[in-house]
Specification:
The protein is mostly helical. It is built from five helices and no strands. It has a domain of 73 residues. It comes from Chiloscyllium punctatum (Brownbanded bambooshark).
Length: 117
């Protein structure tokens, strides 16, 4: 039940009579004066949860900007944990194998080993 609908706008609420089941004056009692009702309604409206979904959605749709790739990488690196499962797999860079011998060394070896050709 909506609390605002339950708050009467007239002064017919009195102690006793048809409203005898209402709490007595003091802590938790229902206010009796018009000013108290007004302030109670204002407090309810203040505390009532407002739905800001539409405003937030419009803001998010209106703010279309892209971050720089280096900033994105920095954020991702910072947010990754220390556990092995949280780390991305590092790609192994294959090194190109270089020979210590030159073509002239191979020719020289060929002449010595197989004879003159």
């Amino acid at each position: 039940m909506d609390l605002e609908a339950a708050i009467p706008t007239s002064r017919h609420w009195t102690e006793g009579g048809r409203n005898s089941n209402l709490p007595a004056r003091g802590e938790g009692a229902i206010p009796t004066s018009r000013h108290q009702w007004r302030s109670m309604r204002q407090e309810y409206r203040k505390k009532k949860a407002a739905d800001h979904t539409e405003e937030n959605l419009q803001y998010m749709l209106g703010a279309r900007f892209l971050t720089e790739s280096n900033v994105t990488k920095q954020i991702l690196n910072y947010s990754q944990g220390r556990k092995a499962k949280d780390r991305p797999e590092k790609k192994e860079v294959k090194k190109e194998r270089k020979s210590v011998f030159t073509e002239s060394d191979f020719r020289k070896f060929e002449r010595e080993y197989f004879g003159a050709s």
